[in-house]
Amino acid sequence: MKSLALACIILLLIPGCQRDDLCGENFQVTPKLNIEFYDIAEPEELKSYGSLRLINDEIGDTLDIEGGNDTSIPLATNADQTTFRFIKNIDSDEPQEDTVRFNYSRRNEYVNRACGFKIEYVDLQVQITDNDERWIKNTNVRKSVIRSDENIHLFMFH
Predict the structure, then answer these.
(1) Is the model more confident about 1 or about 66?
(2) 34-88 pLDDT, tens digit each
(3) Which end of the chain is least crowded, N or C, by CB within 10 Å?
(4) Where exactly are the structural domains of the chain?
(5) Which residues have a Cβ under 8 Å from the Cβ of 92 and sit 6 or more positions away?
(6) pTM of this structure
(7) Euclidean distance between CA atoms 69 and 67, whole angstroms
């Protein structure tokens, strides 16, 4: 009798769940900034950065990346700028460090009842701290609006 009552309750609740009541585990609400690295001498050629450490001192976050020519980084959801220290060749005796500030505006977009809001970053701008030994020579914002993780948003040349 108890199992029959339980089955009836479950059957009554299932039609009550709507698509807006579910937010998938793999659904990433707020996108990351996707960066590709290119050769400054051959601007059409991707260039690996070896080992790379990204440090965000504002929140105490550190990302270590071993080799590659692209990366994805989180931007602040509660401020209109995020600053990272990009440290190349962290395993060598002479690591190179550049400080990069990402400026943007934030726009909230309603996704659904279960997922809530996601943040879109609008009007992306990049500033690299000037110094004589910069390893990041130039940047090119490819997409100034960051809506998803599916696109490359920024090119960095070194």
Answers:
(1) 66
(2) 999 999 999 999 999 888 999 998 888 899 998 899 999 999 999 999 999 999 9
(3) N
(4) 24-157
(5) none
(6) 0.81
(7) 7
Looking up tokens 């934030």 gives 106
Tokens, residue 100: 């990069």
> Which residues, in sequence order, are CB contacts of 109 under 8 Å at separation 6+?
117, 118, 119, 120
Please check whether residue 144 is in contact with residue 131, taking contact to mean a CB–CB distance below 8 angstroms. Answer: no
Burial label for 107, CB within 10 Å (0-12, 13-18, 19+), is middle
Is the domain spanning 24-157 CATH 2.60.40? The answer is yes
The rounded radius of gyration (Å) of the Cα atoms in the chain is 21
Longest dimension (CA), the chain: 80
